[in-house]
Amino acid sequence: MEKFNIAIDGPAGAGKSTIARLVANALGFVYVDTGAMYRAVTWSILQQGLPLEQTADLIALTERLDIRLEPGEHGQLVFVDGKDVTGMIRSAEVTGNVSRIASIAEIRSILTAKQKELASKKGVVMDGRDIGSHVLPDAELKIFLTASVRVRAERRLKEISGDRPDITLEQLEREIAERDRMDEQREASPLVKAPDAVWMDTTEMTIPEVVDRILELCKTRVSGVN
Ligand code: CDP
Ligand code: CDP
């Protein structure tokens, strides 16, 4: 099959990584989780104890980091300078700080360059916030996935374990809404639906329904696919 790129964007908990991974598996494409890259940078900054207002130091650290994404048995593995940080980048501390770090334009350009490079040979399903609008404006298929904040918080609550056993649905809803607000309102490549992206509200859709719909769009929209 001819290779092409798929961009999947949307707010937190919309199902981007779950859907992107399944679509990539079905097509034999590579899945790239760009949120994991912003999380890896945030984890490294926190780990080194750098003051968050010292932007120049944060940018210098980001430039030095070797971030790698590799397929693992249970999903994508994330390595920073050879260390497996897959679990650590999902901590509440990283989640609470990542949107602030992701609002720094220079950090975005460093990661965007890496993302463009990963997609340069095509055959990539990439998910994030600015993939269709900024990172891969020429992606053959662009999807904007969303769902109500309540449903997204409910989905996230089912996943919560480990470091936040007592979190309530209302707390999660507030945190998700705040992260969406920061991602949508930042100046540097904010979360936005690209004009040519297909809008999909998954509030009442199951995971297989969303995957099938995207695979269908691949057949009808992307030339050379059958
Ligand atoms: O999986 P979840 O929706 O919690 O978020 P994520 O995809 O892991 O992304 C974490 C954060 O990274 C987002 O809230 C954004 O602030 C930032 N991000 C971004 O700015 N641009 C991207 N392409 C991907 C993530
Ligand atoms: O990557 P993003 O933050 O957009 O979302 P995710 O981590 O892929 O999905 C959040 C949770 O919602 C996961 O537990 C998925 O299994 C679940 N999900 C769902 O229940 N129904 C959907 N249509 C999509 C995702």
Automatic annotation (TrEMBL):
Q: Which residues form a coiled coil?
A: none
Q: Where in the cell is it found?
A: Cytoplasm
Q: Name one GO biological process term.
A: nucleobase-containing small molecule interconversion
Where is this protein primarily located? cytoplasm
Q: Which InterPro entries match?
A: Cytidylate_kin, Cytidylate_kinase_dom, P-loop_NTPase
For this protein, the Enzyme Commission number is 2.7.4.25
| Catalysed reactions, as listed in the record | CMP + ATP = CDP + ADP; dCMP + ATP = dCDP + ADP
What is the superkingdom listed in this entry's lineage? Bacteria
One of the record's GO cellular component terms? cytosol
Q: Residue span of the signal peptide, if any?
A: none
What GO annotations for molecular function exist for this entry?
ATP binding; dCMP kinase activity
Q: Membrane-crossing residues?
A: none
Q: Which UniProt keywords apply?
A: ATP-binding, Cytoplasm, Kinase, Nucleotide-binding, Transferase
| Keyword Kinase carried by entry | yes
**Record flagged with keyword Nucleotide-binding:** yes
Amino acids binding ATP: 10-18
Protein family (similarity comment): Belongs to the cytidylate kinase family. Type 1 subfamily.
Q: What's the name of the protein?
A: Cytidylate kinase
| Organism per entry | Paenibacillus naphthalenovorans
